[in-house]
Amino acid sequence: MAIVNLQNVTYRYPLTDESVLKNINLQVDEGEFLAVIGPNGSGKSTLCYTLAGFVPHFFKGEISGSVEVAGLESSASTLDEWVMNVGLAFQNPFNQISGAKFTVFEEIAFGLENIGVPREEMKPRVEDAMKLTGITDLADRSPYSLSGGQQQRVALTSILVMQPKVLVLDEPTSQLDPIGTREVFGVIRTLAEKGMTVILAEHKVEWIANFADRVIALHEGQIILDGLPGEVLTSDILLEKGFGISRYTSVARKARAIGLWKNSNLPVTLDEAVDGFKR
Ligand SMILES: Nc1ncnc2c1ncn2[C@@H]1O[C@H](COP(=O)(O)OP(=O)(O)OP(=O)(O)O)[C@@H](O)[C@H]1O
Ligand SMILES: [Mg+2]
After folding, report:
1. pLDDT reported for residue 226
2. Secondary structure of 14-69 in the HEC alphabet?
3. Could you identify the atom of ligand 1 that is nearest to the CA of residue 46?
4. 128-137: pLDDT as tens digits
């Protein structure tokens, strides 16, 4: 069953001439893990905003087509309803911090407080969410005293605590080092395995290959590829259109040109590359 259904969605920001999403048709099934790739400016963040109701309820502008997510219809609902059902982690975690709270714990509890969750229910929910993302030790810190990576985890935690039906993540590891990235992807994988619908805009293609069920490629506001990670992430079209691609794919492509890569498929991850060269 599709929990996300976008039909012919075209969107233009206010005071601009060109649409940044063009005729987007996208269905995502409940429990699916979809990754979105695309060069800078291709519209990944704008698509995330659209999936989370920020377009058009916060960023005005002009939208056409229909957007349905988690039972909400974009034109017939408010941003509050969206926030309750669809969690969005912003690309810049700094944008997510409320500025209203003095501790990380309170910051994470803020959304629950807003919807009137009783204190005794709030505490275990916040503690569980913090445990999941590995930030229990930050509970008493000021949200503003944190590193970018810590802020990114706090932002993710404050979304998870709301138990959204759909989780939209806009480059959630952009501020993280390799260890932090691995940890956060571990959390995302756990959520996906629990059946949460996850949509992830991400540059780190090797991670996507390991985790996603499906990948779409955005280019100048249009979906130009839609399929399995192994197919989309090794497509020649990505090279032509200036997408970031895995170094292992590049190496194997060069090796293939001189007869050293004999498989019909190109690798995305290190393991796939090593496997392929062994044969
Ligand atoms: N608030 C805004 N007003 C006007 N134009 C905007 C606004 N935000 C983004 N844009 C434009 O929309 C296009 C798509 O931007 P978007 O941020 O969605 O791309 P992106 O794929 O997320 O890029 P990046 O990889 O840099 O995060 C770009 O041309 C950008 O300049
Ligand atoms: Mg972006």
Report:
1. 98
2. CCCCCCCEEEEEEEEECCCEEEEECCCCCCHHHHHHHHCCHHHHCCCCEEEEEEEE
3. 18
4. 999 988 899 9
pLDDT at 66 over 90: yes
| Strands (E) located in the chain | 2-12, 21-29, 33-37, 62-69, 72-73, 86-89, 166-170, 197-201, 214-219, 222-227
What pLDDT digit, counting tens, does each position of 1-54 carry? 899 999 999 999 999 999 999 999 999 999 999 999 999 999 999 999 999 999
Q: 196 C-alpha to center of ligand 1: Å?
A: 27
Instruction: Evaluate whether 227 touches 234 at the Cβ level (below 8 Å).
Output: no
Beta carbon of 176 within 6 Å of any ligand 1 atom? no
For 233, the token pair is 């992430």
The CATH number corresponding to 2-245 among 2.30.130.10, 3.40.50.300, 2.40.10.270, 3.40.50.970 equals 3.40.50.300
**For the chain, first and last CA: distance in Å?**
40
Q: At what angle do helices 148-160 and 178-193 cross, to 10 degrees?
A: 10
pLDDT exceeds cutoff 90 at 98: no
**pTM of the predicted protein model:** 0.94
Listed by start position, the domains of the chain span 2-245, 246-279
CA 262 to ligand 2 centroid distance, Å? 36
Q: How far is the CA of 264 from the centre of ligand 2 (A)?
A: 33
Which of 163, 159, 140, 138 has its CA nearest to residue 149?
138
- Residue from 21, 40, 169 to probe ligand 1 pocket by mutation (most atoms less than 8 Å from CB): 40
Phi, psi dihedrals of residue 61, rounded to the nearest 5°: 85, -160
Compute the distance from residue 142 Cα to the ligand 2 centre, in Å.
27
Q: How far apart are CA 152 and CA 143, in angstroms?
A: 11
| DSSP structure class, residue 162 | T
